[in-house]
Amino acid sequence: MRFALFVLLLFVYACRPEGPETLPLPTKICIKTTHHDYPLTGSTVYLKYFSDTFPGYDKGAEFYDASFKTGADARGCLESVPEGKHWLVAFGYDSLHFPHEAFGSLPVEISLTYRPVIDTMLYLGH
Fold first, then answer.
1. Cα–chain-centroid distance for residue 106?
2. Containing H/E element for 11?
3. How far apart are CA 65 and CA 48, in angstroms?
4. What is the C-alpha separation between 35 and 23, in angstroms, rounded?
5. What phi and psi values does residue 35 have, to the nearest 5 degrees?
6. H helices then E strands: how many in the chain?
7. Which residues, including other chains, have CB under 8 Å from residue 104's CB and lie 6 or more apart?
């Protein structure tokens, strides 16, 4: 009887699905991109994790660790950002001003204790 109970318990635990490999962090970065006080919709915002140094505007998308696009309200968010110092680099298009390409950057720091959520503006220029 004990052996049958042991085998039954073994099958129950062996058939359980595995838990997640990582747990999502309660952190988030939300950005609104603007140029000359006008919202820039469809801007691409890149994030370089764990960097104290400005990465520059000449890197390709593969250099960055994460990215997102701003929506119709020129806002975009990225959730589950790791703790640490990071750089945001954004590229947008402004059809009202010449030259039309606009870009900007912003250093950010995420801390689970002090600042888990950042919600700010990112001003793009030429």
1. 13
2. helix 2-14
3. 5
4. 36
5. -145, 125
6. 1, 8
7. 33, 89, 90, 122, 123, 124, 125
Residues forming a β-bridge with 103: 91, 125
C-alpha torsion angle, residues 65, 36, 100, 60 (rounded to 10): -10
pTM, two decimal places: 0.81
Residue pointed to by tokens 């595995």: 18
DSSP β-bridge partners for residue 8: none
Write out pLDDT tens, residues 49-104.
999 999 999 999 999 999 999 999 999 999 999 999 999 999 999 988 888 999 99
Give strand pairing partners of 111.
115
Element (H, E) at 44: strand 44-48
